[in-house]
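FAQ

Q: What does a record look like?
A: Structure on top, sequence underneath. For example:
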């Protein structure tokens, strides 16, 4: 579905992306792990048309994306901040994309009602954004993105501002809804556990270079992901705590 070939970008003579190539099939979620400043956001912005690549090609369903304006790429870019319309209800925030596309009212009612139920937001349909929690606002933002059925969903650490429990719940929700709607997406994060939770494909971005992994095992074994070290840490904690628990 998506083919990125030899993509490079620099700012003020400083390389940010170096010869990035990747392919993504329909329905796959590519989770890209990387530290701050590694180029994750720049990659998403180039895909969305918000930045211009210095070299390389982008194709979506065989269409050259480089000359296509951002508003015609049929992609949605989600940030950490939900950016909801404060004067619109939850229902109308989700319905917004359908209304500007002149979808018939009956279809709008049906599609929005069904999606709010999937997002467990039905009882909040008439509330304003300021009446919602952070996790609820992110669900509404997610729903507004899904309702227009984008060709590609780009997620820039969308759950980064949420507390740990809410973030875990949103990761599970994203995975469930993604599978149900067969969503194709690129999800960038600095959290290795989040990458493993949401991704059907895994990559690591470091100093502008992308490493793709053939399996979860390879991803976990790579020292840069820090997963093996974290597992070892918790194993040591558990073994140290065991005698005290036994007592």
């Amino acid at each position: 579905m998506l083919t990125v070939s030899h993509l490079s970008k620099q700012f003020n003579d400083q390389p940010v992306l170096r010869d990035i190539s990747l392919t993504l099939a329909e329905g796959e979620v590519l989770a890209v792990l990387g530290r701050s400043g590694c180029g994750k956001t720049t990659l998403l912005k180039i895909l969305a048309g918000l930045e211009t690549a210095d070299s390389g090609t982008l194709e979506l369903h065989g269409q050259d994306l480089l000359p296509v304006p951002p508003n015609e790429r049929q992609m949605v870019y989600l940030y950490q901040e939900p950016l909801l319309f404060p004067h619109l209800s939850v229902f109308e925030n989700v319905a917004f994309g359908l209304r500007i596309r002149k979808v018939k009212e009956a279809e709008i009612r049906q599609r929005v009602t069904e999606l709010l139920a999937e997002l467990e937001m039905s009882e909040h349909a008439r509330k304003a954004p300021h009446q919602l929690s952070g996790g609820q606002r992110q669900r509404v933002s997610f729903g507004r993105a899904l309702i227009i059925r984008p060709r590609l969903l780009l997620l820039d650490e969308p759950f980064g501002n949420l507390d740990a429990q809410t973030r875990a719940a949103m990761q599970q929700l994203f995975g469930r809804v993604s599978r149900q709607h067969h969503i194709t997406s690129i999800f960038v994060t600095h959290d290795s556990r989040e990458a493993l939770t949401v991704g059907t494909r895994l990559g690591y971005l470091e100093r502008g270079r992308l490493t793709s992994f053939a399996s979860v095992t390879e991803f976990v074994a790579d020292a840069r992901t820090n997963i093996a070290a974290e597992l070892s840490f918790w194993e040591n904690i558990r073994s140290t705590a065991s005698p005290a628990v036994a007592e």
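Q: Is there anything notable about this one?
A: The mean pLDDT is 89.
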